[in-house]
């Protein structure tokens, strides 16, 4: 249960990053056209450079967030396992309490 939400979130982040990378590749293509035409090449270089710099920060932040989400997912799975183990023990505990109650009366 918790894994699927985390998986969807990871896929959404990857999708967003892919879109940003695609945008930067398009910007790079535009840059090449501008350089070959010789018009406004400096502005295109500055824009593309800025976009790549921003993307690098976004990728680093996303990676950090993904690592944190992975740890949270692991901890949630440990808690689910502990809850399941406790739930499996409930019938035995109930039987023991009934035995104690029966022998006390």
TrEMBL record:
<protein>
    <recommendedName>
        <fullName>BLOC-1-related complex subunit 7</fullName>
    </recommendedName>
</protein>
<dbReference type="GO" id="GO:0005765">
    <property type="term" value="C:lysosomal membrane"/>
</dbReference>
<dbReference type="InterPro" id="IPR032143">
    <property type="entry name" value="BORCS7"/>
</dbReference>
<keyword id="KW-0472">Membrane</keyword>
<comment type="similarity">
    <text>Belongs to the BORCS7 family.</text>
</comment>
<dbReference type="GO" id="GO:0099078">
    <property type="term" value="C:BORC complex"/>
</dbReference>
<keyword id="KW-0458">Lysosome</keyword>
<dbReference type="Pfam" id="PF16088">
    <property type="entry name" value="BORCS7"/>
</dbReference>
